[in-house]
Every structure is written in structure tokens, then in C-alpha cells.
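Input.
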Amino acid sequence: MAGLIRLRASLRSLPSVPRSSFARTPPALQVAAWFPSPLFHSANIRESRALLVAALDVSKDGSSAVLANSQPPKGVIETLRNADAVCFDVDSTVILDEGIDELADFCGAGKAVAEWTSKAMTGTVPFEEALSARLSLIKPSLSQVEECLKKRPPRISPGMADLVKKLKANNIDVFLVSGGFRQMIKPVAFELGIPPENIIANHLLFGTSGEYAGFDPTEPTSRSGGKAKAVLQIKQDHGYKAVVMIGDGATDLEAWQPGGANLFICYAGVQMREPVAVEADWVVFYFQELITKLS
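Output.
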């Protein structure tokens, strides 16, 4: 029903933070209120910060390890401000969800697929192995993908729309570079005003009757190290000198290689993956931190 507000607040909306965490106060609990018409417009209802703190595993005295890269050095800020383009991961960065996990849960294979997603994002298994394993468990039909998008529209992360606007105002191009699926990312890109040609993602294949027929293995993001190749291709195609990668997972960190991204910013506002965060140039928990530095 158009205009109907659908609240989706559950434990999976909470950031996943390990026992050894960070000293700064974590983001407030986000409860997304979605209006199915028009597509993907949201209102974010902020609850008491104490609710989230109570849900996190914090030491008794309230102390925890400080991430040395939670404050950006001058060179990092300059690279961000002078970047030709910024490439964003999508799942758990641009949106609050892991798209493939949402699709798996919708198709009845949620638990097994979520375990593979965790392995892929922490880099404990090659991404291509995890992608193939997850899709073999789901085997989504075209109608299931479409129905999932209709009933479980992606929830855009707080501040993301404003960040995209700020980047555009600063003449910085925006790309979505994802190990997720193009069919599920296009509506997100449309809502954020990102052209479809600026999406690099995996492509689900379907038979003549809409049955699942696999995925396109030629897409760079279908395998480990693919995001570095994708960023390199973006730089070559557009003549960019400096490109920034922003994401939460191991595949995003991989984009930060010679010839790839010049800067890697770990976004930990949805998922805190400590092995990735400690390697980043800068760790942020709110997109407003980036907007402020771009001003």
C-alpha cells in the first residue's frame, strides 16, 4: 500500500562489534521507516544512544582499545578532497543490509548463506568460492529477486544521500563497486542519483522462464582482488589520477593496491570488521565525518 510506513527494526540492524572494539561512542540505534512509494525514501528514527551501548559487548570499566586511524592525518583529508572519484561498496556501507543475505533469507536459505558471507567479508575464503557457494544454496529465480526487492527494499545508510550530494557538489564522481548483484543495486543507485553506468557489480543470469542459470564470471567483482581491477579500469577509462575506496569488508581493502585505490576508508557504521579497520587509512562511523572534512 502506497504511503504505508514499514518499520524494520531487528537485531540484524545493530552494528556487529567484536570484544576488542573502539573508544569512541558507537552510532545510535537506527530504526528505518520505509515508504514503498516512491521507492526507497526513508525516515530514520534515532533511539537513545544507551540502547545501542547496552547491546554492545563493552568492558566493565567502559574502556577499550583506540583505533589509531580513527583520526585522519592531513594527507588523507587532502587526498579525499582532491579525489577525482569515490567508489563505494554497497552492502553494509551504502545500505544497511547485506543484499545476498536478504535474498537468501527471503528464499529460505538465510542461515547457511550468512555464514558464507561472514567468511567472504573477513577474507577467510576466496570471494569467488563464497559467491558460488551462496548462490548454489539460494538459486534465486528472477521472480524471487523482484519479489524480494518489492517486499524488502534496501535501506540506505543514514547520511549516505547527503554524502553523495556533497561529493557531486565538489565535482567528485561517484561509483558503486560491489560483490553484490546489479539487479538489486540499480534501484539504490537510482535513489541516490548515481548513473547505472557507474555500477560495477555481479550479474545474475536467468533462463527463458526466469529460472536461475548462474552468474557472469567475467565481472571483476566476482572474485578476490576484483575490486582493485575494477578501480584500475575506472581510472583508465576516465583518466582519473586519484580514486578513494570506501567500504567495510576485505574485498574493499583489496582495492587499495598499486594501480587501484589511492586511499581506503573503512566505514564501520554498520559492521565493525576489526581486521579490515586496522589496515585502513581512516575509519569512520558516520558519513557526516566525511561530509565535514569535504566542506
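Confidence is low (pLDDT under 50) at residues 1-65.
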